[in-house]
Design a protein that fits this description.
By secondary structure, the protein is mainly alpha-helical. The protein is built from 27 helices and six strands. The longest helix is centred in the N-terminal third of the chain and has 58 residues. The radius of gyration is 35 Å and the shape is globular.
Amino acid sequence: MSWANWIPLAIAVVLVLPVALAPYSSYANRIVSRFALVGFGSYVERIDRKKTQRKNTLRAAHLPTTYRIYAAKTVFYSAVLAIVGSMSGMYVIWGTFGLLSIDEATIRSTLPQQLHVLADFTGLPSLTIYELFVLMLVTSATVGLVFGGLTYWLRWWYPSYRADERARRIEASLPQTIAFVYALSRSGMEFPKVMRILAANKAVYGDAADEVNVAVRNMDMFGQDMISAIHTMAHRTPSGQFKEFSENLASVLQSGRSLSSFLQQQYEDYQEEAESQQEKLLDLLATLAEVYVTGLVAGPLFLITILVVIGIAVSDTLQPLQVLVYVIVPSANLLFIIYLLSATDTISQIQRIDDVQAPIEKMTEVRRAESTRTDGGTGANGDTDTVTGANGDTDTVTGGPSDTDTVTGANGDTGVVDASAGMERLREYRRLRWLRARLGSPGRTVIERPVTLFWVTVPIALLVTALRFPETLVDGQVSIRAFDDLLVQGTLFVVGTFAIVYEVHRRRLEAIESAVPDLMDRLASVNEAGMTVVQSIERVRRSELGALDPELDRVWRDIEWGADVETALKRFESRLRTQIISRVVTLTTKAMNASGDLSTVLRIAGSQAKADRRLKQRRQQEMLTYMVVVYVSFFVFLFIIGVLSTVLIPNLPDGGTSTALNQTGGGATGAGVGGIGGVGGGGVNTEAYTLLFFHSTLLQGVLSGLIAGQLATGDVRGGAKHAAVLLAIAYGVFLLLL
């Protein structure tokens, strides 16, 4: 092929490159948007019959773009991908012709015997120029239409998918959101202010707060009244439940009915709805657990057994077994894990919040002048500043000719202070503060963010594996069995250490979550007795609250050192950085500013925390059964694979099935079977089968562990400990048996 044959490929790359870079580069995105608007902007405004529906979908998905830009880019992307697909079709034809031009004898000598049937399809027929042109035209047009049509469909499918996902997350967080609104409204706060506070806490209340932000933005930026803004919010939301709540809320506000009574009723209704949704989720997880055990444990085990029997009796089935063990089973398990992620994403996890700042951090962002002077101070012209110390001594600060100041003490000593150098050191400290926070206390960093442990354990595992790699060499070749030992031991080290750290992290958060309802109830009780907020905190900290005891002592210490209650609670939030604590602190501080009577607000918050805790405990108890089922199914898998590896395969006669039949008295019948298949004439490759079974148990152990943890906790990270345990058991069993 000459260089001219590669021109279409170069054109395709040039066309697709800006499209591929647009999501990651603002410059590429601007270029693509301009070309799309120039080429198709007026077309999509004039032609699209589903414009209204698609506009609503884009708004519900909260995509940061307008309908005109998104629709024009969709048509532009489809056109580009259609052209690229057409050009790819030409190369498909050229490649097909290249394969068909290979003679039949070469095909038969290259491919295994099982694939010799493909040789019957070789042989390039003679085509005229006209026939060749028509064939390439039809192929290019077909591939181009497929590429363009699929791109167009995917671009309009994605907003609907994102809107549906947002709807699920909104409805999952709706009980907590309504409890927050109900509690603040009972504190006497104006409802527009309640909406603004909720919108400002999107990190805590999720997509429901993001929906409320739509109404707040319309009120603050576009001057809408509150009722109209709530109607707009109801019209734009993708969630049916949130839409119904918003419309009812607008009706209550417009009619003048009791808002507290309405919110209380909604709060109780959504508590019942949360229990109903959990029942549906538990039924779904139970079904998925049964599907997993049947389809991804028993099914592969049955296929492995059948293929082994066929391989012994008829022909070699090692290659199909390898495809099953190394490709089909892992891929099916990974797809199952991905589906579980989407099915369990509404489970309320104890989430850590990373964007919480302590109140003192706000002061570090204040801009400072390059040459700051106090009253009586001057610049670098020789004027002086007088500084009086706490003991009555007086120092004189004299401006020097440069950026330095001369400091003369009362005892006659002098010194030079470089003000610009001090500011530079302060800037450098602020730049590296995040690094100091991470490396200054590595234990705390790892406990708070278990994933950061991989930055240490993975390099260590790779280094140790590389240093021990020469041990796997036997006669100049790598021993797969010895190399497997290195990989398994390294994996156990990485996964096991992460499992330990994550378990400590999870238990810490569990302890905090379990103590929150008691904290709310006790604060409410002492507040009802007439104590102020400060007195309530001082009284409650002396009681037993488990994991919160040391943190409440620090809150009280901050108050004793002069911090106000809001600042002390904000620092408490910044230390723990959990979603449930952020909810409590936000609710308490905002209600405290509205009224000193916090008992009702705290009771509502405590009731919501108890309800969430009760639902979680029930879910864990229900799913414990299915986690045990996963364990039992793995042990059955391990037992049968162990029997195949240690009993059946090693005890087969060296002569294959013909020898076995002769030994049983088959006589002439046995002689007639001796030539069947590759195994019957040459014996069984026991080492290959044993290695394959070993790998199958290791893969099944890791994947079953991840799925067991995900079913139990809703988080795939929770499966790390189960994966480590099952992997260690599988590895230990094969070490003992082999």
